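User:
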Amino acid sequence: MRGAFIKNVLTIYFVGRVCMALMKPALLFYIATRLGVSSGNLFAAIMLTSLLVLVSLGVDIHRNYYNSYFGGSPRTDLKKTLTDYLAALIIILGLGAVFIFGVLLYQNQNTELIVAAMFFLLSEKLCDEMMRYCLFSENFDRWGFCGAFRFLLSIFLAILIVEFFDSNSVAHIVGSMAFGNFCGILYLKLSGTIDIKFGKLKVRSSLYSGLKLIYKSSAVWVLSLLGAAYTYLDRIITINLDATSIGYFTLVVSAAAVLQMMIDYFYTSLVRKRLLDGTIGINSVVTDIRWQVSVLLGLGIAAAAMLFVHLTETLDSELSLGVYICVIGYQFLVANTQIVKEINFWRKSINLSVLIELFGLSLFGIAIFSINQIMKLDLLSTLIIGLICLLFRFIFHCLLSITSSEFGSRQPS
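Assistant: Predicted structure:
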């Protein structure tokens, strides 16, 4: 099994995964060192805002279509589920553009940066949808090539803009990333990877169906919002930092996030069909060589990236060893909790998952507020409290997964 895994996965797909995991931290580091920490902060803020908007609009609009096309569900409603999926995607793209426009306008960003960020968000969402289709159709080589191509193109364009055109505009770099995304979309379409026949959509009825699909997925929407708060909890904590430390801490978190992305990209994406079928349990996750490799590889790359950032004199800041350990712990717990949440999600334990998410956030909020009233919390203390809450959240989701599995096994066939 190990030999087959190395032969089948450690190819262009693996290269693409590594490239996608390193792309934004590498760009952030390059911008911060060449254009200054303030430009790095601005770039990080744009990336984080885009991610929060995308996750906030992370309704599982693909679920019904993917169940019909890839799963064991009847394919009689394939055309209708596809129409609903595409219509809902158009609505989400429109909402995403409006949201990021409003947020950046509120922050008094310039028009050029707002337009670039809007194009980036739209291209990122479209590219994510098409690359997810690649994973479900098990077209890993083309996914990997597309990921590596986007990475190389984005880095090349950033260097070209800064070094040869002597531009210090973050908007130009964000715009170049959007261009890279659209090139990736074009490659996937022209290569025949996406074989969906779009046909003609009746706009009014299709958009109405799309709205109904989004409404029916409201519980998942809430789950996505709560999940986003956990995923970016370490970024949210940067509010407590002084202005001179935000850039460095953001870069440290971005480097550590490689661990989360490697587990997600290198394991979760390979077992999406099994998650959809509900044939994966916690025991099968931890005994899977792919999960083990993804954790070890992610820890190694994340530690190396954080060490590289720490040794860089350009971004000097004083953070204790405990902060680095907490940040790594955050990424590990968030990534693995997401796997357990996926298991519970496809077993239709959504409402209980929402309650667990609400309980965890409430526990964190109460703890931070209460302790902060007694003593002024520093960064490490805040991170430790958050880490404890994430650990409890992980345990409760695991218990839900175990109990739902046992309950399901008692049901008559």
